[in-house]
Design a protein that fits this description.
The chain contains four helices and six strands, in the order ααααββββββ. With 138 residues, the chain is an alpha+beta fold.
């Protein structure tokens, strides 16, 4: 499945990545699609609310600190020049426009694809950290 096909799927939003995905587990689902390995397997089902997600992220020391240890062992590498399909943490306006926060996203042309509570959206955002797939996964 390519990126456009993945983005076009009907994605259900659900905190914790069990019944649907949140923005971070959604990116992990993309990684699983590409590599066959779910980097969020140990996290799925460990929280079920936005508050629970924020607590998990805070305990890890931030979103980058939470996701990087799950990506590096399966062969993804940090990059400062992400290309289409690479996963990242970006800084963007929240979906209700009230705050700016770090959000997991997938590079999609000049934009970043993110899962919102209502649908997949693609918008501009500032890169915080990105990981490239191993060459064989492309």
């Amino acid at each position: 499945m390519d990126l456009r096909e993945f983005l076009a799927l009907p994605h259900l939003f659900g905190w914790g990545g069990v019944v649907g995905d949140d923005c971070t587990t959604w990116c992990a689902s993309w990684v699983r699609e590409r590599t066959g390995i779910d980097p969020a397997a140990a996290l799925r089902g460990t929280y079920s609310t936005e508050i629970g997600a924020h607590r998990l992220i805070a305990r890890a020391g931030g979103l980058v600190a939470l996701v990087e240890p799950t990506l590096l062992p399966i062969g993804l590498v940090r990059t400062d020049e992400p290309t289409d399909g690479d996963v990242a943490i970006v800084r963007a306006a929240s979906f209700d426009g009230t705050t700016v926060s770090e959000i997991s996203a997938i590079k999609f042309g000049p934009l970043w694809a993110m899962l919102s509570p209502g649908r997949v959206v693609a918008k501009k955002a500032d890169l915080v950290a990105a990981w490239r797939f191993p060459h064989a996964a492309r």
